[in-house]
Amino acid sequence: MEIAMLKESELEDSLNNTVRPALEQCKTAGYMDPAHQIYSGLPLPKLEELGRLHYVCYDVHEFQKLNIPGASKQFHGAIVVSHGFSEFAAKYEELAWYFLLAGFSVCILEHRGHGYSPRDVDNINYVYIDDWHRYVADLAKFARTIGREYAQGCKLSLFAHSMGGGIAAAMMERYPKLIDRAVLSSPMIAPNTGAPNWLAATLCGLADDLGQGKRRAPGQHDFEPEINMKHNPGCSVARIQWFQDLRKADTHYQTCAATNSWVKNAVMLSHAILQPKRIQAMQTPILMFQAGHDLWVQNVAQNKFKSMMDERHRDIELDRIPQSAHEIFSMPNNTYALYLKRILRYLQSSEKVSVLE
């Protein structure tokens, strides 16, 4: 297969006039009942309104009927996408396009508190979760049901970014036979809270205990329509602008502020991932990408995770991209193309892959 990257100079036009119409031809959007129990069988805490989780899937068999030049004619299974903090399914349309071209169906769950999934808070900007186990259990249920359905007996792979990478790591530790192969892109093995994580978790946890869990955490802010490229060093301006335009056009995509409960649970999730007995239970082969200019998650925690996996002879590879910002899929084509080629060659070995900048 020969995959051509979208030209940055024509990105908006290509996404609107080529990618999105093709995706609509193979797209299914739906809702899933959330999980009710964690990996051990213990029930999750009750919520006032459980709601249903939103997802978007793309069927590669329908996509292949479009006869897109360079697209694979083979079927390599399905990829479940676990997105990052304050993200949403539509942000992954370009990456889904490349995965479809490579012969994979794509299944994207919008985590609780994101996109069109239930929020549990009134403010559209806030991201809240009551218990990190809920993220993990919901993703596991989605992979076990929707993901496996789209894999059709073939491999079920995983692409997980940032917060979604932390959720995915914890999930694979607790559901070790669920995913066949995984890519963790700048995973949140530990968040960068702007303070020592123990202090952030203590202060936000105290606020949560005092009934302020749904309040905005210190240092967080509401959605701002203007782009601040200082938060995206070296990124493709065209991609950052596209993401921001999506957010401006739909209030469901304007989440940006962590609540006290989210901060507390993000740090608890980090500790849960790095438990030796959980890492020992890991069976899924992992390719982990690390961004050299990451402002949002801790590289040192990723290194610790890699070291603990190595010590227990778990299957993990680490690719560090020194020039990259946190969102490697938002970088210019000269970085994105190498990243994409590495991902596709890792997830399948039966077909030669070339990626053209």
Model description:
InterPro entries: AB_hydrolase_fold (IPR029058), Hydrolase_4 (IPR022742), MAG_DAG_Lipase (IPR051044). Keywords: Hydrolase. It holds the Pfam family Hydrolase_4. The chain has 357 residues and is α/β, with parallel strands linked by helices. It has a single domain (2-190, 231-242, 270-356), classed as Rossmann fold, CATH 3.40.50. Helix content is 39%, strand content 17%. The chain contains eleven helices and twelve strands. The chain has helices at 11-25, 60-64, 93-101, 132-151, 163-174, 197-212, 237-249, 260-273, 276-281, 299-311, 333-347, and strands at 2-4, 27-32, 53-58, 78-82, 105-109, 126-127, 156-161, 181-185, 257-258, 286-293, 316-325, 354-356. The strands form three sheets. Strands 2-3-5-4-7-8-10-11 form an eight-stranded mixed beta sheet, with helices on both faces. Helix 4 crosses helix 5 (163-174), helix 5 (163-174) packs across helix 8 (260-273) and helix 6 (197-212) crosses helix 8 (260-273). It starts with a strand and ends with a strand. The mean pLDDT is 97.
